Amino acid sequence: MTNNNNEKLTTITGAPVVSHDNTQTAGRRGPVLLQDVFLIEKLANFNREVIPERRMHAKGSGAFGTFTVTNDITKYTKAKIFSEVGKQTEMFARFSTVAGERGAADAERDIRGFALKFYTEEGNWDMVGNNTPVFFFRDPLHFPDLNHVVKRDPKTNMHNANSNWDFWTMLPEALHQVTIVMSDRGIPNGYRHMHGFGSHTYSFINAENERVYVKFHFRTQQGIENLTNEEAGAIIASDRESSQRDLFDSIEKGDFPKWKMFIQVMTEEQARNHKDNPFDLTKVWYKSEYPLIEVGEFELNRNPENYFADVEQAAFAPSNVVPGISFSPDRMLQARLFGYQDATRYRLGVNHHQIPVNAPKCPFMVYHRDGQGRADGNRGSAITYYPNSYGALHGQPEYKDPALQLDGPADIYDFREDDSNYFEQPGKLFNLMNDDQKQQLFNNTAAEMNGVEDFIKERHIIHCHKADPAYGEGVAKALGIDINSIDLNKEIKYF
Ligand code: HEM
């Protein structure tokens, strides 16, 4: 508590409040008077305390920290944050589950959000990733549907495993991500014990204005730790805030969690000749071909004083990049460049950039004006139009990205015709698992498929079998289905 004992209560307009115990009434035992303006103010403010929760990633935990460069990558990027070894930049991180609402339990089988905001001297860089290197699909049209199936059924208001697995198995490219979520890594033991990934392909631009493509990796220095379904169930029975508690308590006692940052780099030439689509979010780049290059480390060392102010009001957007870091043609990333700022305008309002956790720490000249909740003086009498005769608000052409070579006429292209190599990577992932991890994968899948119709289970078994016969056999056995009863070569109609 930071209250000063001598603090005296006022209204929001600063007028002294006479009593914080008794409302004004007509007579000793009479009804309340409408002229008790403080009572009305207090109730009205209370009614507006809840803001819309994030449509997904609603339950989360956040902390402030410091990023330190440990390796020189200036040949790839001119981003000031990486300009010299030893350089430090203040940052904020928010971790989350995806499907649960704001009051959901932490120890659920789900993807974890891994969102970082770096307050660089050329603007905020938001790295809005997950604890998985891939995602369920390649076209953003599927995104709202994913959230409809992992959230509540419109009629029962409960989780509907049948819709969930129907959707996932109608998208064979989802198997890679589904395998990760069903694996032993599907329930991290708190946010400190998981890796983070940018997942998408991004661009780095160097001082010569040359582009390379990059993927971002953040590797936990606390070690990977996971929970089994049984362990998670026991935790949830007594603690719904297990990840929040773990992160908060460890920072509070000075045991600051750390992640090392790495990049994978692909030249434009390599991207042109890459076996798969290098911008396909359902695939990783193999580390044997594109090794991890160390960049730096971040440490989370300060808990927010107020959760709502800093964590609930934090707003991340993949569109928040800085000179030296840019986008790629990944369809999913392109849609996210629109989605997040738009969601934030709905959730926090058009002046969300003035909320301290979101505000850049460098000078910024926002030309937009007015709007609800504008609290920064609104640029006073400064010029609000362009062009003008007074030299105000010119663009900065020196920050232009190199031209991006694109080809082909604009059209609606079926990504399945481009690449239907859905099962190679989930198969390789399966084969990285030891026997115990494989058995956990089978058991977790069977548990999550409880109540799902048989034809959907069979479709999943067929996909697993295509990734690796032992994967299909293991899942079938855990589901109590004789794999020999399934036509494994059956052609599946996806659309
Ligand atoms: C949150 C959209 C894919 C990571 C959100 C939010 C939206 C959204 C609207 C809520 C934002 C808010 O209210 O503040 C989308 C769309 C996607 C997509 C349209 C694909 C087309 C992804 C992917 C990742 C990801 C691929 C990770 C690689 C996150 C994270 C958050 C989030 C970490 C929570 C950010 C926070 O902590 O505030 N997403 N998303 N999303 N998304 Fe996505």
Description:
With 495 residues, this protein is of the alpha+beta class. The protein is 28% helix and 15% strand. The protein is built from 14 helices and 10 strands. It has helices at residues 37-47, 143-150, 161-169, 175-182, 229-238, 242-252, 268-273, 307-312, 331-348, 415-418, 424-432, 435-448, 454-467, 469-479, and strands spanning 60-69, 88-97, 112-120, 123-130, 196-197, 202-205, 211-220, 258-267, 293-302, 325-326. Strands 1, 2, 3, 4, 5, 6, 7, 8, 9 and 10 form a 10-stranded antiparallel β-sheet that branches. Helix 2 (143-150) packs antiparallel against helix 3 (161-169), helix 3 crosses helix 13 and helix 13 (454-467) runs antiparallel to helix 14. The chain is globular. The termini are far apart. 37% of the residues are buried. The mean pLDDT is 96. Residues 54-57, 60, 94, 96, 113-115, 128-130, 135, 140, 143, 199, 314-316, 332, 335-336, 339-340, 343-344, 347 line the site of protoporphyrin IX containing FE.
Walk me through the topology:
Elements (H helix, E strand, L loop, with lengths): L36 H11 L12 E10 L18 E10 L14 E9 L2 E8 L12 H8 L10 H9 L5 H8 L13 E2 L4 E4 L5 E10 L8 H10 L3 H11 L5 E10 H6 L19 E10 L4 H6 L12 E2 L4 H18 L66 H4 L5 H9 L2 H14 L5 H14 L1 H11 L16
Antiparallel strand pairs: 1-2, 1-9, 2-3, 3-4, 5-7, 6-7, 6-10, 7-8, 8-9
Helix pairs in contact: 2-3, 3-13, 4-11, 12-14, 13-14
Bound molecules: protoporphyrin IX containing FE (HEM).
